[in-house]
């Protein structure tokens, strides 16, 4: 089944995927994925391991190519919309044993901005402080990241994303390495961020109480099983489609069935 219709796509959405396909090596990682996300929504992206959640985030961030269909960010191809996206990947490359301060990590979010010059140091420091205030860690600004808890470090990474002033925030498994208390803190934080009109996508394995935490849910298992209000789309059939066996569905599907998208 597929609860997402082509006519759900519209011109007012900030992210529009229309039959998007991504190939990794010889494997079809995303196949005919269609959905449309409105500006300011808080969206849970759920599905099994290997279901394409990280691949979708990489595609939105312009890190992997689209082989068929289209994916538009604010009407642009992902490669042209990178300035609108902040991405906190599942496995951050920062070595927490390296002597970096919280301030230095957040400043990494500004490295591609036109702010790194002698005349804008005050502006840089202001952005860093504001981002840390938003995640409740301004008092840790000079702390070595090795001294932080898992939840605190995750909030520092979110602050790094916020410092970019992006319209879209992608959090890949933001709750996977933190305890239940830290998960609740991060969710409260994300709710506050959403008040600023940012569009937030969070990949998560937890499908419990999504209707209380998110505006919409995107159910993914290489294809889009369903998208919409969690209380409406998380049916037993959709959950079975996401987490059940799908070998038959892709039995006759090969990477060669798609050609390079030149859009």
CATH topology: Rossmann fold
Widest sheet, order of strands: 5-6-7-3-8-9
Distance between the termini: 28 Å
Can you tell me the CATH superfamily? P-loop containing nucleotide triphosphate hydrolases
Which CATH first-tier class would you pick?
Alpha Beta
| Strand percentage | 15-25%
| SS-based class | alpha/beta
Helix content: 25-40%
Number of structurally distinct domains = 1
Determine the number of helices (DSSP H or I, runs of at least 4 residues).
8
Overall pLDDT score:
82
Going by CATH, the architecture would be 3-Layer(aba) Sandwich
Unreliable parts: 5-9, 246-253, 258-263
Shape: globular
Largest sheet, if any?
A: 6 strands, mixed
Written as H for each helix and E for each strand, in order along the chain, the element string is: EEEHEEHHHEHEHEEHH
SS elements, strand count: 9
**How much is the radius of gyration in Å?**
19 Å
